[in-house]
Amino acid sequence: MGNVGQTDLHDLNEPIINHSEGQLFLSEAFKIIVEEVLCKGTDVNEKVCQWKEPEELAALLDLELRETGEPQHQLLQRIKDVAKYSIKTSHPRFFNQQFGGVDYHSLAGRFLSETLNTNLFTYEVAPVFILMESEVLRGLRLLVGWTHGDGLFCPGGSTSNMYAMNLARYQLFPEVKSQGLWGLPRLAIFTSPESHYSVKKGAAFLGIGTDNVILVKVDDGGRMIPEDLDEKIKQAKSQGAVPFLVSCTSGTTVQGAFDPLDHIADVCEKHKLWMHVDAAWGGSVLFSKQHRHLMKGVDRANSVAWNPHKMLVAGLQCSVLLLRDTTNLLKQCHSANATYLFQQDKFYDVNLDVGDKSVQCSRKVDCLKLWLMWKAVGSSGLAERVDKAFVNVRYLTEKMKKREGFQILREPEFVNLCFWYIPPMNCLDHTPVIKERMMKQGSMMVGYQPLGNKVNFFRVVVFSPLLSTKDLDFFLNEIERLGNDM
Amino acid sequence: MGNVGQTDLHDLNEPIINHSEGQLFLSEAFKIIVEEVLCKGTDVNEKVCQWKEPEELAALLDLELRETGEPQHQLLQRIKDVAKYSIKTSHPRFFNQQFGGVDYHSLAGRFLSETLNTNLFTYEVAPVFILMESEVLRGLRLLVGWTHGDGLFCPGGSTSNMYAMNLARYQLFPEVKSQGLWGLPRLAIFTSPESHYSVKKGAAFLGIGTDNVILVKVDDGGRMIPEDLDEKIKQAKSQGAVPFLVSCTSGTTVQGAFDPLDHIADVCEKHKLWMHVDAAWGGSVLFSKQHRHLMKGVDRANSVAWNPHKMLVAGLQCSVLLLRDTTNLLKQCHSANATYLFQQDKFYDVNLDVGDKSVQCSRKVDCLKLWLMWKAVGSSGLAERVDKAFVNVRYLTEKMKKREGFQILREPEFVNLCFWYIPPMNCLDHTPVIKERMMKQGSMMVGYQPLGNKVNFFRVVVFSPLLSTKDLDFFLNEIERLGNDM
Ligand SMILES: Cc1ncc(COP(=O)(O)O)c(C=O)c1O
Ligand SMILES: Cc1ncc(COP(=O)(O)O)c(C=O)c1O
């Protein structure tokens, strides 16, 4: 194979990339990807991670960028190396994050999106995806219980949460868009201490400030207490603040708790506040007839953030903001009417040009992968994934209860199971030690954290459609094995 | 091939996705993608777009999401349909946007990123990419002229611009993070009327307000006038505002103008303002020995936004924010210290966990595609692409000057060429008419817009490494043909 990147002798009036050489390279790369990431990377006889210290890894990868290019065979070797030393997030023993696993239809959709390389701002450059995004949003909104509304794919749930804040603020005080916050009274946001940190990040970014995020008490299960919410709202008002948004969580990050939406909706209605539901993690229960009751009352919210890249295995990133609004608030709040993109004298209906609803300009096509996966397995197939996850977590919980040394934090409400493993040779804080061994041996990955006054515990999340009970048994045995080595 | 998505009979204790069936599907999809998007999609004998009215297209695509899944052959047909009706942005006759073309090394990197499906927040889940991102940022910073500094890949240049605003604000008033804007004096941002609309969007989103974005006059070429900047800053101060940021542009969206950075740096120093350079479009000139003078003075800036997904053909999205700062401002400004991700008792150097520098939580791996492409052609190969683009725009300009009916707006400073085509049978505003015909025939795509008091003109951007002078001749002939049909 020649060197596609050879640079010395090109006639600059001619193309300097060769399609057939390029396509050959891509085919070779595709084979490596399938072999290394999809076959080996999901094989239980292979490691989840090849732990290397940063200095060693940097040396192995030879990351430096140089003046001249490299031959094709060397580039293919680089692809192998990147695959080799990367974490195998599709591996059945990867329990570390709220994403993982692999769905092949979604992956095909991702390859297609990448190759089509377009931008979701105008019907002109993305006719298929403008219509598709709208249909996928409609499908998700119907699950929330809204026959009408609006929405957008965002680069992550954190961004969706920020959008909700900005919309709520704009609805109450439209002048904020032009004048900023100075003319306004101090605004206040309400959320639980177990909500995702993006609520605070968003408040800081939007100029509201983290001090104006008021934390509402939670019950033993980590669920927001509506009575305390009511109390805190009154208190804030009495201190001269203007409450404008409650950010509830459906499926908290650590414990997987569902805030009681119906009761919170009552409080929001009473005080006329925007009700946002951060269902980035838990939203997928809406597919399941059996489990959707966890989000009862969600249809009373003003906005919902939901990440199909988590539980539905749609692939990073796939994240939507759904709105009940039918007054075009999203566009009014975010539009800048740039004439180079959003000309009003176009020959088609310019309402199709949704780009101005976003604070991004170029915006990735994140709908295709979800659409294709949904077409492939249907709503019933997605429901099944959710049901399976609950079956798995139940299995794991029951087994854990019967085993010496395991202590669960509480009965899981969702697919997060938080637990300690206390080795026979007790030491003070063993969780990080077990974790270090796990990583260095590469056998498995699971996350840990402290919470309030509770010392470090593991949080295992079991949602991948690729899991079997064998993997869960392995999980338990492996924790024991690593812990007992102390 | 069986139906991977068949859902009725699954044992939920077992995996419900089959790897070998899935991999077979992916291979079939890959073949279609290569054939339809990369072969046909770049063939000059094929159309750039298959124009359909929205209703017709929606019907053709059968977008609706249903309860049950579909068989594999039907899903493969759907992939074909999506490809067929999507815009061929890699086609040599796609001149419509500041992205387009295809680089096969980058594309291979994108497939690999998608398959590895990880998140750029911790060394734990992204060891390779944490190190790689840092190296790519270092390489880009060196081109700016900084041996030290910081930075981050962001989901687009608009986000990079917002980050710069937030950092500048935080540096001046760190209390904004906790207290919001209420305690602060009214802040003011300075930019030219030809800057990208994301500056205004960002100001609105951050609670600063679009009225506090003060527009500085430009010269005939669309470049900010430093004397007017100085004037406007003084004026704002006298009206009680606190100027804190100047957002210059290197390569404006429409005209491709470069603001005089060195002179602006003098003004910023004098008034102690944060100097941000929005080089989303123009930044790539830094690779070229011949053209990097356009950004002279950029090393005096505090931050630079640069989108390799535009001129360097790295693929959407690939967008960096570069910082001169060495005090960890990015992390201080954005961190939330979530204990479930950023535990401080980890067994490795937690400074590698860069996720808390971002306001996102999950963040896509956008560095690999650029790294692989850079490794493939070297800095010299990327420089060559920039030089080629300038050669192409010169060619097009000279030809246009010699042809009847073409009138250029001004001599291009960069690779944007703005022009009118005035058909012999003159009509009032023919640009949108030519555009409509072009789209409906699908022969070519180029954007248009008005500017100030100038009526609609075309903006052609020529940067794709896949272009030949034949394509440029075609462009001229086609504009003539479409225009003369009136
Ligand atoms: C409850 C919750 N909300 C929001 C997020 C943030 O989503 P993203 O990572 O897509 O920004 C997460 C991610 O872990 C989450 O668990
Ligand atoms: C000068 C300039 N800045 C910023 C942007 C926005 O970049 P993005 O689309 O990646 O948000 C653009 C895009 O056209 C641009 O031309």
TrEMBL record, chains A, B:
CDD domains: DOPA_deC_like (cd06450). It comes from the Eukaryota. GO terms for biological process: carboxylic acid metabolic process; taurine biosynthetic process. The modification N6-(pyridoxal phosphate)lysine is found at K310. Pfam families: Pyridoxal_deC (PF00282). Keywords: Decarboxylase, Lyase, Pyridoxal phosphate. InterPro entries: PyrdxlP-dep_de-COase, PyrdxlP-dep_Trfase, PyrdxlP-dep_Trfase_major, Pyridoxal-P_BS. GO terms for molecular function: pyridoxal phosphate binding; sulfinoalanine decarboxylase activity. Its cofactor is pyridoxal 5'-phosphate. One of its GO terms (cellular component) is cytoplasm. PANTHER family: CYSTEINE SULFINIC ACID DECARBOXYLASE, GLUTAMATE DECARBOXYLASE-RELATED. Homodimer. Belongs to the group II decarboxylase family. This is Cysteine sulfinic acid decarboxylase. It comes from Sphaeramia orbicularis (orbiculate cardinalfish). The gene is csad.
